[in-house]
Amino acid sequence: MVAFVSSFAPSIARTAFAGAAVSRAAAPAKARFSMDASASVPFLERPPKLDGSLPGDVGFDPCGFSNAFELNFLREAELKHGRICMLAILGWVFPELVGHLPNEAYSATNPLYAVGSVGWLPIIQILAFIAICEAKGVAKVYDENCANP
């Protein structure tokens, strides 16, 4: 045990068993390649498009979406997803606290059951509205080539 513990000593020490000199551990070898690490995930390489010029950009892109898509499109998609999540929480809590629309088909408070209980026409209307909004958003980002969507 003493030999094991003395091997971690900061200076040269002799063990009681063999009398051999134990030296400090060598300094770690330098890496053969230079990789610009991401600040958010240090063991991953920072994507080339995420150079820190955008607010909150710390190089977090573990799936490599910034290599496949334009950054303006990804920024717009992130804003849309955040807003949709806020509306989804509101739509989940509102029927339980306030009440539902005046029809038996809209009385389900469980969101998973409510999708099937309303029928196909309201679902198609919602999907058509989402498609129109997405088409306008894509036109804004790609056709107008805006720098700040």
Structural key phrases:
single chain; 149 residues; mainly alpha; 3% strand; elongated
Q: Could you explain the architecture of this structure?
A:
It is a single chain. By secondary structure, the protein is mainly alpha-helical. The chain has five helices and two strands, in the order αββαααα. It has helices spanning 2-6, 65-68, 71-97, 111-117, 120-143, and strands at 13-14, 21-22. Helices cover 45% and strands 3% of the residues.
* Structural class by helix and strand composition: mainly alpha
- Low-pLDDT stretches: none
- Termini separation comes to 66 Å
Average pLDDT value? 75
Query: Globular, elongated, flat, extended or rod-shaped: what is the shape?
Result: elongated
Strand content: under 5%
- Compute the number of strand runs: 2
Order of helices and strands: HEEHHHH
Number of helical runs? 5
Oligomeric category: single chain
Major beta sheet, specifics?
2 strands, antiparallel
